[in-house]
Write a structure and sequence with these properties.
Layout lengths: L1 E5 L4 H12 L3 E6 L6 H8 L8 E5 L5 H10 L2 E4 L6 H6 L1 H22 L2 E7 L27 H21 L3 E6 L2 E2 L10 H10 L4 E4 L5 E3 L1 E2 H13 L6 E5 L4 E3 H12 L5 E4 L1 H4 L15 H7 L7 H16 L1
Parallel strand pairs: 1-2, 1-4, 2-3, 4-5, 5-6, 6-11, 7-10, 8-13
Antiparallel strand pairs: 9-12
Bound molecules: nicotinamide-adenine-dinucleotide.
């Protein structure tokens, strides 16, 4: 099969490209490299096993003609291209909204035109400010005011979900909506506020590990390999069409405990420093205290759920960071 990955030079996209190549498919990537990186896909492009199987297009999904060609020739589309990361959204409030709303509309419109199955990448952020656990797909959403730009990421992805479901219900478009919870692993950059690569980087440079607020907020983390396996299986599961599905890990950890574990695993001499939210994000920010996914729906549809332990995830990220430094 030919698979089109929008945002395929990004963190999740490059791992998904690798998995689809391993499975014997041809992979087409369109990425404007705004937060992605050519080095994420270069090793795959240079790998003799994948000669003539990976096609990289340095372009934006807003280039309608290019996207039309690519959607036309591919069998399936995984739409990952987006403005991602809290810091990035706060720094680029308008362009982020355009990318996440108009960009997704363009992708859905072309998939409808050619009747191509498409997976839309959504996020656990759509649940908003809720602290019960687990969060399941039928739960409501709770946001702060529109004057707080941090909610625009959640709201834009929620609009993507509504639009995708609209195309499914009104136009019979085969569409799957995946709500990723914090996904981590090799190649993720800490530049845009992702907590594990940021803390690992600080620990390895022996800089203070900066934990925001009182550090008691909790998260679960998904290894990117598990997230990718979930996507591949969901794209093959007929029952997933027209459905919203959580993809997330199982082990809940406070950010303070996370920082302690990273410090210990890296053998770092860094102190752990608590920083008030209003110092890190002078405006427009509110955090969620807890975010734990229910993954029964994913398991019911695919027979799979992410189970990689946090220790194994951290070992992998640290090993990758050390190798990149060497
Ligand atoms: N990593 C996570 O923890 C996480 C959590 C929830 C949701 N997601 C979603 O998963 C998807 C992938 O995220 P990621 O973590 O790999 O982030 P990423 O930033 O590494 O990937 C996004 C990619 O999209 C590209 N892109 C952005 N605008 C584009 C445009 N106009 N045209 C073409 N390419 C464009 C970027 O260059 C980048 O390569 C996103 O839709 C994101 O919202 C990720």
């Amino acid at each position: 099969m030919k698979i089109l990955l929008t945002g395929g030079a990004g963190f999740i996209g490059s791992h998904l490209a690798e998995r689809y190549l391993e499975l014997g498919h041809k992979v087409y990537v369109i990425d404007d490299l705004s937060t992605g990186c050519i080095d994420n896909v270069k090793p795959l492009m240079e790998d003799p096993r994948y000669e003539g199987k990976l096609f990289f297009h340095h372009d934006s999904i807003f280039n309608g003609e290019k996207l039309l060609d690519l959607v036309g020739i591919c069998d399936r589309v995984v739409h990952l291209a987006a403005a991602v990361g809290v810091q990035y959204i706060l720094d680029n409030p308008l362009s982020s909204l355009k990318t996440n709303i108009q960009g997704t509309e363009i992708v859905l419109g072309l998939c409808h035109r050619f009747q191509k199955k498409v997976l839309i990448a959504s996020t656990s952020e759509v649940y908003g400010n809720q602290s019960h656990a687990p969060l399941v797909e039928t739960d409501g959403c709770a946001y702060g005011p529109s004057t707080k730009a941090r909610w625009s990421y959640a709201a834009s992805k929620l609009m993507d979900e509504f639009m995708a479901l609209g195309y499914h219900r009104s136009m019979d478009l085969p569409v799957v909506i995946a709500r990723f919870f914090n996904t981590v692993g090799p190649r993720q950059t800490g530049r845009y506020g992702m907590v594990i690569p940021r803390l690992v980087g600080q620990a390895m440079r022996n800089e203070p590990l900066t934990v925001y607020g009182d550090g008691r907020q909790t998260r679960t983390f998904t290894h990117v390999k598990d997230a990718v396996e979930s996507v591949v299986r969901l794209m093959d599961a007929g029952g997933a069409e027209g459905e919203v599905i959580n993809i997330g890990g199982a082990e809940e950890v406070s950010i303070l405990d996370l920082a302690r574990r990273i410090k210990e695993k890296t053998g770092s001499h860094s102190e752990i420093r608590l920083i008030p939210y209003d110092v890190v994000f002078p405006k427009d920010f509110e955090d969620m205290q807890r975010r734990v996914p229910g993954t029964d729906k994913l398991f019911g549809l695919t027979g799979f759920r992410p189970l990689t332990k946090l220790d194994a995830i951290l070992d992998d990220v640290i090993a990758h960071s050390r190798a990149a430094q060497a």
